[in-house]
Design a protein that fits this description.
FAD/NAD(P)-binding domain, disordered N terminus, five-stranded parallel sheet, seven-stranded mixed sheet
Length: 356
């Protein structure tokens, strides 16, 4: 997985450095707790010894499943909660995931769940997380089926895609309308492509349209008249053989659940087999209720190495943290978060004498 813009390059040495830094931060408070014997510290230790889980993971997609595997192999008690609509439910295949290229999303999850069964300390439940409260080390996680406690929480909840207000958009989402050419470009190679650019996407219009030419010669950019395309960008598109269509869009024309054309407001139809679009996204209610800091685009802000959010003890991995959204990228982020959580928890427990 490529690093997010502005993030430091993650190397094995970097991981080890992060582990050392975590240890320095965690061991000292743990030693003070043991030596001080203050009533409030004893109460904290008692709560920790009665924790139901070391980590509760919210979300059972690639990020959550990968994190569960890494934490399970590190001998941590894990509960992974998977419920609600799945973001890739409309997708027919998972692509660009080595050894799993072309696997249907449901089959991907079944394989992962089956592999987790060999680790008795990992529990997977199809249950909704209603709320999360409490301090770092003693989180109270309210499920639809009851309440559990956890030392740490990892959010792998993905994002909610808001469908654009065009007739036929929702029905074609995941079938003929896609977000990522790396996930679907090969299957649609040499077909008729369209890119539906919103005003919010204006800065990405040129690089997206130009890279699309690597998969097909036939590319049309639709702006719907939402914004002006600079003359220089128009010239670049023309040189690259990309058509620019600025008329308003009336509807999407489909046959047998597949896109055939984009119909413009005047009635003209532009043939199109695959339409790429980046609709607005928002966090699920649980994430917003937790008060974690979001960036200007609405993604959860995290420490680039530890993947910890602005709420101490709460981590995040996957699509809810970045525009670079792909199954293998989310899985990598989940493993990274799991490693950082494991280092922190293990050093904390070891320094307090809680490990056998």
């Amino acid at each position: 997985m490529a690093n997010e813009p502005g993030a430091p390059r993650l190397t094995r040495r970097g991981w080890l450095y992060a582990a050392t830094a975590l240890g320095a931060a965690v061991v000292a408070p743990g030693c003070r707790s043991v030596r001080g014997n203050k009533p409030e510290q004893d109460a904290t230790s008692a709560r920790r010894s009665n924790m139901s889980y070391d980590v509760v993971i919210v979300g059972g997609g690639p990020a959550g499943l990968s994190a569960s595997l890494a934490l399970g192999r590190a001998r941590k008690r894990v509960l992974i909660c998977d419920a609600g609509p799945r973001r890739n439910a409309a997708a027919e295949r998972v692509h660009n995931f080595v050894t799993r290229d072309g696997t249907p999303p449901d089959e991907f999850r079944q394989i992962a769940r089956k592999q987790l069964e060999r680790y008795p300390n990992v529990e997977a439940r199809d249950v909704r997380v209603e709320s999360i409260s409490g301090p770092r080390g003693a989180f109270r996680v309210e499920l639809a089926s009851g309440v559990v406690e956890a030392r740490r929480v990892l959010l792998c909840t993905g994002m909610i895609d808001e469908m654009l207000p065009f007739d036929g958009f929702r029905e074609l989402w995941g079938r003929s309308i896609f977000q990522c050419p790396y996930c679907h470009g090969w299957e649609m190679r040499d077909r008729r492509w369209g890119y539906l650019a919103r005003a919010a996407d204006s800065a990405h219009l040129l690089p997206f349209a130009l890279q699309a030419r690597g998969w097909t010669r036939d590319v049309v950019v639709f702006t719907g008249g939402a914004f002006e395309v600079p003359a220089e960008s128009r010239a670049t598109l023309e040189t690259a053989g990309v058509r620019l269509e600025t008329s308003a869009i009336a509807r999407l024309v489909a046959r047998d659940e597949r896109l055939e054309a984009v119909e413009l407001a005047g009635g003209a139809r532009v043939p199109c087999d695959a339409l790429f679009a980046h609709p607005p996204q928002r966090q699920i209610d649980l994430v917003r209720a937790m008060g974690v800091a979001l960036d200007g685009d609405g993604y959860v802000q995290i420490d680039p190495m530890k993947r910890e959010t602005s709420v101490p003890g709460v981590y995040a991995a996957g699509d809810l943290t970045t525009r670079m959204q792909a199954a293998i990228a989310a899985a990598t982020a989940g493993t990274q978060a799991a490693a950082m959580i494991n280092v922190e928890l293990t050093m904390e427990l070891a320094s307090s004498g809680a490990l056998g």
